[in-house]
Fold this sequence. Notes:
transferase; nucleotide-binding; transferase activity; transmembrane; ABC_transporter-like_ATP-bd
Amino acid sequence: MNIREIAARHRLLLGGGIVLGLLGAAASLAQPWLIGRLVEAVAGDESLAWPIALIALMFTADAVFAAGHAYLIGRAGENIVHDMRQLLVGRLLRADTAAFARLDRGDVFTRVVTDTSSARIPLSQALAQIVTHGFTVVGGMTLMALIDWRLLLLTVGCLGGASLVSLVLARRVRRASLTNREDTGAFGSGVQRVMSALSTVKAFRAEQRESERVGGLADTARRSGARVHAYSAMFTPAMNVGTQLSLAVVIGWGMTRVATGSMPLADLTAFVMYLFYLVSPLVLLFLAIGQLQQGRAAITRVSELAAVPQEEAGPAEPVVPARAPHAGPGPAPAVRFDHVSFGYGEDADVLRDVTFTVPERGLTAIVGPSGAGKTTVLQLIERFYRHSSGTVQVGGTDVAAMPLDRLRGMIGYVEQQSSLMRGTVRDNLTYAAPDASDDDIARAVTLAGLRDVLAALPDGLDTELGEAGHGLSGGQAQRLAVARALLTRPRVVLLDEASSHLDSNAEAALRDALAGVAADCAVVTVAHRISTIAEAERILVLEDGRIRADGTHHDLLATDDLYRRLVSQQLDAVGAPG
Ligand SMILES: Nc1ncnc2c1ncn2[C@@H]1O[C@H](COP(=O)(O)OP(=O)(O)OP(=O)(O)O)[C@@H](O)[C@H]1O
């Protein structure tokens, strides 16, 4: 679905609004003509009751239709904004991981919140105004031509010049407002950037520098916004000059003709009234053209974001391979990599010809120097990225042949950085299983070694956490993330251990938790701590994107230099034998 289809979905409301607008315009166009008849009735000493009653009826109809028009168009506009926002949020949540990573968060925020609001204007308000005011202008001019075409030519001559100036201004407004939208997006990005790293800003005493930098962005947005207002502000005066000029000319020449008897006074009165009635729709028509131009810039920005590449959802049902993928005895391995290679974008491969198997149960640790590709392995299991060659299997099935939803339902992922959200501990814990029973929650909490932590919190499970789990220590947050991953009883738990060191109590709690979990399912952990490494039944040593060695802690200590080095670095870091 694209933006125009969204607008088309609300065509009934829009159409209804436009019809009411046209009826209102017709009612207002009838008024000068009726006033002309009133002047005739006064001059002819006829009854005034009918002309006055009709004029009152037209005023009332005009007001009622105008109110109905504004309501229906406003409502259609809000519906369009809502649908655009839903479309964008849906597409962002299902965006391809690599494409999403390239987006600027602040700019995305501006597009979803502000640009959707502006994009509604050309699709509802400006569109309706162009139709109804266009009708009033054309209708008014036709009636004026019927009264006196020579006076109309004079009027068009005076107003035409002003209209040309307004059209030029409309184009300038569009360009200025596009720049202003970009500047506002840049300001949003600047704010987002500092807000997401506020403690870094404080720790490096960069408050003043950042405040000047973000202030500079706000100033750029102010200046381009002022330019939009400067051009917009010239619209009405430009039209006013045209109107005043045409009024002076029409009254001057018209009165001369009335004096010579070649034009009835009633016709001149009606003509001058049409001229007055025409000015406001004409100004609004040009303003609507300006708004249309401004809104087109917003539609472009919304459409660009809606085109963000989407993650492939995989087949609706698992594809049954011709040959059973797992031919060996016993249950299928939890995870299997078979000659897998992968690179981010055009860059060189980060993983090269990686082959390993993770058994159905137990703890498998992945170790290796920084940048070796450990986190990337976990991300390929989750299918955040597609590997370029080889096969990745989870539970004996190729991940490419599985519906994405089912694949991720089999996995519990604990990220390296705190992945908690603002909300209560319970909200965070039950994120993947909102209907989890109290028993299931208690089990996950116990397995993750969180019972004592929860007991010490002021409101237990209902304690409110701040942004990114603010209110818990790093170790507690990590164990809460483990409990969350366990709640759905996944087949495979992926844990990306933070490289920072927890205190020894927290470390022991996490180690016990992992041992408990690994008795039930497969745990694959990127391990930095010697305590985790030593606990693992099997260790994969990754170096520069390749599996260099695998085996138990003791085997590897005896056979692999890099492993010995990694372990001794860890021992140095913790200052105690593992
Ligand atoms: N989103 C990404 N886009 C491009 N390159 C990336 C991306 N993520 C990681 N890389 C690169 O891939 C390589 C492997 O990164 P990865 O995060 O898997 O390493 P790691 O072994 O987990 O490192 P660490 O122990 O420091 O967390 C690195 O060279 C990194 O620069």
